[in-house]
Design a protein that fits this description.
Elements (H helix, E strand, L loop, with lengths): L2 E4 L9 H5 L5 E7 L5 E5 L9 H5 L6 E4 L3 H11 L1
Antiparallel strand pairs: 1-4, 2-3
Length: 81
């Protein structure tokens, strides 16, 4: 599964990642970080790991995109058999 990790302490709540995600995988959360910003959260299994959210984010280190490769999937399938 592909997914996005949002560093809540780096996110300033600009919503650029939310607006740019083609699969609507991100949403504004209801929590507030220690510097007073409401931050984005990952909320979907539809993620394609396209990286658009990463590239539009003005805060370095706020977003990490994780793409699961096919080799990892095959290992997991064989492990479960």
């Amino acid at each position: 599964m592909n997914y996005v990790i949002i560093n809540s302490e780096e996110c300033k709540g600009c919503r650029l990642c939310i607006e740019s995600c083609p699969k609507n995988c991100l949403m504004m959360g209801s929590n507030i970080n220690t510097i007073g910003y409401q931050y984005a959260e990952f909320q979907s299994e539809q993620c394609t790991a396209c990286g658009i959210c990463y590239y539009v984010c003005p805060e370095l280190g706020a977003i990490t995109v994780v793409k699961e490769d096919k080799a990892s999937k095959m290992k997991e399938v064989k492990k479960n058999e």
